Structure formats: C-alpha cells, structure tokens
Automatic annotation (TrEMBL):
One Pfam family of this chain: HbpS-like
Name recorded for this polypeptide: Heme-binding protein
Organism: Lichenibacterium minor
InterPro entries: GlcG_carb_metab_protein, PduO/GlcC-like, PduO/GlcC-like_sf
Origin: domain of life: Bacteria
Length: 142
C-alpha cells in the first residue's frame, strides 16, 4: 500500500489545548507563552499572556517543535546530543523543559510548548493542557 491513514490535529483542537494551558498558567499566577504545533511542526495556535517574557516566544515554539518531532518531552534530549541537534536544526530543537507531544493512539498529532516560568512550571502547564486534550478526546463521539 502506498498510503497510510492519518489522524490530524484541527485548529479547534489546538485552541482547546491552548486554552487549557492558559487556564493552568493563570491558576498558577505565572504568565506564559504557549505554542501548539501539528505533527509537521506547523504553528497552529500561539498566545503570549500579559506579562510573559518576550524572549520566551521562541523557546515555547521550539519546545513544541521538539516534542512533535521526537514524540517525547523536550527536556529528555540527552545533554550530549542537544547542542548538535540544536545546531543541525538551526536551533529548532531544544533540551529545555516545557514541551510535550500530543499523542492519539500512539501517533504524534502535534506538540505543545510552554515558556516563561521555571522549567518545572512550564512543564506543569504543558501537562495540564495535555490532560485536558485527552479528556476532550474521550468526550468526542467515535
């Protein structure tokens, strides 16, 4: 067979992930930059909350891209390989915490990246958004 079926993240799905992340960040009192990309690392949704660091715009996007590309949290890249991967990808891959893949039945459909707090805060917001994503998936009719 020359084709394979694919599940795709919609803009509505990306907005739901973004909204969940923003709600989690607001509850923590930590303004964040939040990026959601599809499986091909195309930016689907982005928001810089009031008070979030301007330089975290790029890191949030790169965290989302790293998670979508690798299918793993962005903080898991090995310390030895991280500089080479960053150089080889023109800085698009990062070892910074705060990026998580969006998975459906083991298939990567996208990634979320959060930046502007500490690495642990960024990861906590991303985890809340991924949990909301999975909860919404369970609610969808088959």
């Amino acid at each position: 067979m020359m084709l394979r079926p694919a599940v795709k993240l919609t803009h509505e799905g990306a907005r739901n992930v973004l909204d969940a992340a923003v709600a989690a960040a607001a509850a923590m009192g930590v303004p964040q930059c939040v990026a959601v990309v599809d499986e091909g690392c195309n930016l689907l949704a982005f928001l810089r909350m009031d008070g979030a660091r301007v330089l975290s715009v790029e890191s949030a996007i790169r965290k989302a891209m790293t998670a979508a590309t690798t299918g793993q949290p962005s903080g898991l890249l090995s310390a030895e390989k991280a500089p080479a991967l960053a150089a080889a990808t023109d800085g698009r891959m990062t070892k910074l915490k705060g990026g998580l893949p969006l998975l459906v039945d083991g298939q990567v459909v996208g990634g979320i990246g959060v930046g502007s707090g500490s690495g642990d805060q960024d990861l906590e917001v991303a985890e809340a958004a991924v949990a909301a994503f999975h909860a919404l998936l369970r609610e969808e009719p088959s």
